[in-house]
Specification:
There is one protein chain. The chain is of the alpha/beta class. The protein has a single domain (5-265), classed as LmbE-like (Rossmann fold). It is 40% helix and 14% strand. It has 8 helices and 7 strands, in the order E-H-E-H-E-H-E-H-E-E-H-H-H-E-H. The chain has helices spanning 21-32, 58-78, 100-114, 129-144, 185-194, 197-200, 214-222, 246-265, and strands spanning 12-16, 39-45, 86-91, 118-122, 150-154, 177-180, 225-229. Strands 3-2-1-4-5-7-6 form a 7-stranded mixed β-sheet, sandwiched between helices. Helix 2 links the parallel strand 2 and strand 3. Helix 1 runs antiparallel to helix 5. It starts with 11 loop residues before the first strand and ends in a 5-residue tail after the last helix.
């Protein structure tokens, strides 16, 4: 069931693991927020490993970091986020799980700096290790009382091949979910996503396809944005209404399945 945008009209902080996650998972939310001065986005990593083949040398990595930072500034501007409310933590892409204590301290400091009503983090069973590290750090801090804001989990990787419905959101208890319908904000979300040209186009000559395909962009712009209201007392797979045993198994298997499929397709996109 869709909810009015006003439910999230308090001050909010979105933790984006990489440049584009803010638009993919929270683009409608950010575009539709009525008090832009109360909206904050923090990009946690430097985005330096997507596509991975573009960072074969330190100079190439620095160049990609600069590209992705400029794209992120353009995307958040399209979404109406004030430039002063956009921060870059610049932690190396792909390293967050190895820096758990440092990451938690840094994220807690960001929450205390902003003092938001809501903190948005990737879903607890997201696919990317950086996304999971941010969820674990913030949700652990909320559970321990280190932060007091309401935590909301958003979805970037929601499509799972190993689930019968194909969408992990279908397995969550409906009462814990909130959905924002696309409406007029869908066009804004699309423009924001398309600012991330290093991800939405064949940015390098050697790429056979974009990292974010046209089909994926079309889907995320047409569907509602789904949010899970985090309850610190409901941990892990207990959040699911069904398939609680199978989903953690599928979650571990999905990345290997994707790598195998990409190798069969001969894709070298990153």
């Amino acid at each position: 069931m869709a909810v009015p945008q006003a439910e999230f009209d308090g001050s909010l902080l979105v933790f984006a693991p990489h440049m584009d996650d803010e638009s993919l998972g929270c683009g409608l939310l950010l575009a539709g927020h009525l008090a832009k001065e109360r909206v904050h986005v923090v990009f946690v990593t430097d985005g330096s490993h997507s596509p991975a083949q573009a960072t074969q040398s330190p100079d190439q990595a620095r160049e990609l970091v600069g590209v992705r930072m400029r794209e992120a500034r353009a995307a958040t501007a399209v979404l109406g986020v004030p430039a002063a409310n956009v921060q870059f933590m610049d932690l190396e892409d792909g390293t967050l799980q190895r820096r758990a204590l440092e990451l938690r301290a840094a994220l807690v400091e960001q929450v205390r700096r902003v003092s938001p009503r809501f903190v948005f983090v990737p879903f607890r069973y997201d696919r990317h290790p950086d996304h999971l590290a941010i969820n674990h750090a913030v949700c652990g801090a909320r559970r321990d009382g280190a932060i007091q804001a309401d935590v909301v989990e958003y979805f970037v990787y929601s499509q799972w091949r190993l689930l019968s419905s194909g969408d992990v959101r279908d397995y969550l208890a409906a009462e814990s979910l909130r959905r924002l319908d696309p409406g007029a904000a869908a066009a804004i979300k699309r423009r924001a996503i398309e600012c991330h040209r290093s991800q939405t186009t064949r940015f390098y000559d050697w790429q056979t396809r974009p990292i974010l395909t046209r089909a994926l962009v079309d889907r995320v712009c047409a569907e509602p944005e789904t949010f899970l209201m985090h309850d610190p007392s409901v941990q892990g797979s207990r959040v699911f209404a069904r398939a609680r045993t199978w989903i953690p198994i599928a979650h571990r298997a999905e990345p290997a399945l994707k790598r195998w499929k990409d190798r069969l397709a001969g894709w070298t996109g990153g």
